[in-house]
């Protein structure tokens, strides 16, 4: 394997690139030794990390089974799969993280989707009736809380060289609040499901290495600050660095997965023991409905299966990259030179994780600093969450970006899927990223195409 990669590196170096533009040969293995060789097909994000020892592959498969499982309401004859709801967003993890890839906003008139909406009052508390998340489905006898609708408006952006791009701007609203009106001025934050690859590796990046990149006061004066999120971890029982979710709300995989079981599916785990999931005290019938606990006081999700779901979520391999074309290499240099790497930090080396050799000591290429950035008014949801304010988002990793269409059947990007491709995603960048975005507008058409070819090669 290593021989092969070095060889690929040698071919790269033979091309006509300036000395400092020579890619590091390890770039073609974005997940380090955990990277996986995949066909360019719909299964590209669903492979176990190459570093998984053989005797743990079965655990991965069982975790995959839980991830794909469709839960049912209680009481039911299939006791190991019941407890859904009463209110929920989807019946299984895969319903949103389709093929372990990314979700998308709903089409006009579509109810089910892989986008969910978080809620809060203007002063940052959960909505007294609806809680922190809008559940768009309910089991028999429990109406869905409401329906998510986007009204889209189009605008044209002129680019250098006579080109134009069209952006679609969503105005999000909820139709048919079923349990009475929400708090006056309720804040909505729509999110699509992010892809699932390489997450155990991101969890293994040393906190010090992430903090070293943070520059909250922008002391270096480059216009890009970057702030580490400090959030509460139910799993660790203490404050910790937030890493997962569009606003870095979850510090560990256990926190993220327990939140998903509870808020998205209404399933109790050790960390969130309420069988009614996210039903509030105002939703009394929901709280009184039968739950799926196998015995009183036991969580609906068997603790062993919970752990295997966490294991699965940590170990989806990042695809090896193909040797980039000369055009993508040119784009790679532009990506650095116009300032994208100020946030989309190319690489880290993961720490030594006790008991997790499969994630330890890997040079990885996620293209994210895992920090929060002010992305400007255009992307703002005005809803603070965890440590992030209403304009901040965590830099998403860009590894695997070029597989989006084959895995997910679309190329819609950003936290609410408003961008229909990578160029639109960049044109939405504002705030700390305004200067980098403006440079993309000013690139010649050939250079812009090269930048996009680089993104597509990831
Ligand atoms: C209703 C759709 C939906 C369902 C069902 C769902 N997720 Fe998610 N998932 C999301 C969204 C949306 C986010 C981003 C959340 C945020 O921004 O806080 C997310 C984030 C995540 C992340 C963090 C990814 C990252 O890059 O930060 C993981 C891991 C995850 N989900 C695992 C799961 C697991 C495991 C399940 C099943 C127990 C599950 N999800 C069920 C929509 C869903
Ligand atoms: C100031 C930090 C910052 C800079 C500079 C920056 N980005 Fe981003 N990027 C982000 C954040 C944060 C998001 C997520 C925003 C959202 O979803 O609302 C993002 C999202 C993206 C996405 C979509 C990813 C996804 O999973 O949906 C792409 C593609 C992207 N950036 C490319 C670029 C390129 C190319 C450049 C350079 C022109 C660049 N970015 C510069 C912070 C930055």
From TrEMBL:
Keyword Methyltransferase found: no
Boundaries of each Cytochrome c domain copy? 326-458
Task: Say if the entry is tagged with keyword Signal.
Answer: yes
Which keywords does the record carry?
A: Heme, Iron, Metal-binding, Signal
For this UniProt entry, the molecular function terms from Gene Ontology, in alphabetical order, are: cytochrome-c peroxidase activity; electron transfer activity; heme binding; metal ion binding
Q: Record's superkingdom?
A: Bacteria
Signal peptide start-end = 1-19
**Protein's recorded name:** C-type cytochrome
């Amino acid at each position: 394997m290593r021989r092969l990669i070095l060889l690929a590196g040698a071919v790269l170096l033979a091309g006509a690139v300036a000395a400092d533009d020579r890619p590091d040969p390890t770039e073609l293995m974005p997940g380090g030794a955990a990277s996986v060789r995949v066909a360019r097909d719909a299964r590209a994000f669903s492979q176990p990390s190459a570093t998984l020892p053989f005797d743990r592959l079965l655990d991965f498969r069982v975790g995959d089974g839980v991830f794909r499982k469709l839960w049912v309401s209680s009481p039911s004859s299939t006791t190991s799969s019941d407890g859904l709801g009463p209110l929920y967003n989807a019946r299984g993890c895969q319903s949103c993280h389709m093929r372990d890839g990314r979700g998308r906003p709903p089409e006009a008139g579509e109810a089910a989707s892989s986008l969910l909406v978080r809620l809060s009052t203007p002063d940052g508390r959960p909505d007294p009736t609806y809680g922190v998340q809008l559940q768009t489905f309910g089991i028999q006898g429990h109406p869905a809380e409401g329906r998510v609708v986007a009204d889209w408006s189009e605008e044209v952006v002129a680019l250098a060289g006579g080109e134009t791009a069209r952006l679609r701007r969503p105005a999000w609203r909820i139709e048919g609040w079923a349990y009475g009106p929400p708090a006056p001025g309720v804040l909505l934050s729509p999110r699509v499901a992010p892809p699932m690859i390489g997450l155990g590796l991101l969890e293994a990046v040393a906190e010090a290495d992430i903090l070293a990149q943070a520059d909250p006061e922008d002391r270096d004066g480059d216009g890009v600050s970057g702030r580490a999120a400090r959030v509460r971890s139910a799993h660790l029982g203490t404050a910790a660095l937030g890493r997962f979710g569009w606003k870095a709300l979850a510090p560990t995989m256990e926190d993220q997965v327990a939140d998903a079981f509870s808020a998205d599916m209404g399933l109790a785990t050790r960390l969130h023991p309420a069988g009614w999931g996210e039903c509030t005290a105002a939703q009394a019938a929901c709280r009184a409905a039968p739950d799926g606990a196998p015995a009183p006081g036991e969580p609906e999700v068997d603790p062993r299966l919970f752990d295997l779901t966490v294991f699965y979520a940590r170990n989806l391999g990042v695809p090896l990259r193909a040797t980039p074309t000369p055009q993508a290499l040119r784009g790679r240099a532009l990506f650095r030179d116009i300032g994208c790497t100020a946030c989309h930090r190319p690489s880290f080396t993961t720490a030594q994780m006790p008991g997790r050799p499969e994630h330890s000591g890997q040079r990885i290429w996620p293209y994210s600093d895992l920090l929060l950035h002010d992305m400007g008014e255009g992307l703002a949801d005005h809803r603070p969450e965890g440590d992030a304010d209403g304009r901040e988002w965590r830099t998403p990793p860009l590894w695997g970006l070029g597989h989006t269409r084959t895995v997910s059947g679309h190329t819609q990007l950003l936290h609410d899927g408003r961008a229909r491709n990578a160029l639109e995603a960049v044109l939405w960048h504002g705030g700390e990223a305004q200067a980098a975005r403006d440079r993309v507008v000013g690139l010649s058409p050939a250079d812009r195409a090269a930048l996009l070819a680089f993104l597509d090669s990831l």
